[in-house]
Amino acid sequence: MAIPYPHFIASEKAAPPSSSLAAVATSPAILTQDDLKKIAAYKAVESVQSGMVLGLGTGSTARHAVARIGELLSQGKLTNIIGIPTSKVTHDQALAAGIPLSDLDSHPVVDLAIDGADEVDPYLNLVKGRGGSLLREKMVEGACKRFVVIVDDSKLVTHLGGSGLAMPVEIVPFCWKFTASRLQKMFEDSGCVAKLRTLGGIDEPFVTDNGNYVVDLYFKSSFGDLKVASDGILRLPGVVEHGMFLDMATTVIVAGELGVSVKNK
Ligand SMILES: O=C(CO)[C@H](O)[C@H](O)COP(=O)(O)O
């Protein structure tokens, strides 16, 4: 059940939100999508405790959480935090926000990760990676004890792929057309179209932080059993990782016009 914002604002009193969040929270009629992302992010950061090793997600929702953690550190309300960033962009943001950073080699167990998602199904399975960071996200979030996903309600779907938007697959650049066409063929019964991700408007491939390419899969209909699809994609030589995060999220925080709801596994 959604907790309406007045309740949420009250629970924020112990650690007042920044002025911009307070401003949006008192005027629910004018909440933008970015306001909702920020509300979900701030709610997730309430679970952060001093001394934690934190997985720091990537994207326009996660960046609000990273900024909030930096703010609480600078105010002395959090101490002794170590962040494990899931992308170069988040690494740079976290560094600028004063969050001490490490990696999985030095900190193989992560207490809590907070990240956004592109799709969330009713079982808390996710599509991630439209921001291109799915591999590092899956490594960090797969190593954490708790994985809190933060979304606005536009990300909720009845089944993965159901938004009609991309399901990303990270592949090696070598013979990428071959790998893309095998992916498309694998899901031809679902009307799949595989497209190489390119840099805005030009034909240059988008290159991930790991030096790989991303092929986005678009489905006309459901691609069936998620585990079967996941295993099939991962068996294909040339594939590095895909953006289905199955059975990984422990909590999903959803912010919508009417309030914020918290779904636990
Ligand atoms: O998986 C991701 C990046 O690889 C992001 O978490 C996902 O794309 C959601 O992004 P946003 O919060 O900007 O909507």
Automatic annotation (TrEMBL):
Pathway: Carbohydrate degradation; pentose phosphate pathway; D-ribose 5-phosphate from D-ribulose 5-phosphate (non-oxidative stage): step 1/1
Keywords carried by this UniProt record: Isomerase
Protein species of origin: Senna tora
An individual GO BP term: pentose-phosphate shunt, non-oxidative branch
Domain of life (superkingdom): Eukaryota
HAMAP family, A to Z: Rib_5P_isom_A (MF_00170)
Record has Signal as a keyword: no
NCBIfam families for the chain: PRK00702.1 (NF001924), rpiA (TIGR00021)
CDD domains on file: RPI_A (cd01398)
Family: Belongs to the ribose 5-phosphate isomerase family.
GO molecular function terms noted in the UniProt entry: ribose-5-phosphate isomerase activity
Entry EC no(s): 5.3.1.6
Root EC class: isomerase
Keyword Iron-sulfur: no
Pfam families recorded: Rib_5-P_isom_A
Protein name, per record: ribose-5-phosphate isomerase
Catalytic activity: aldehydo-D-ribose 5-phosphate = D-ribulose 5-phosphate
SUPFAM superfamilies membership: D-ribose-5-phosphate isomerase (RpiA), lid domain, NagB/RpiA/CoA transferase-like
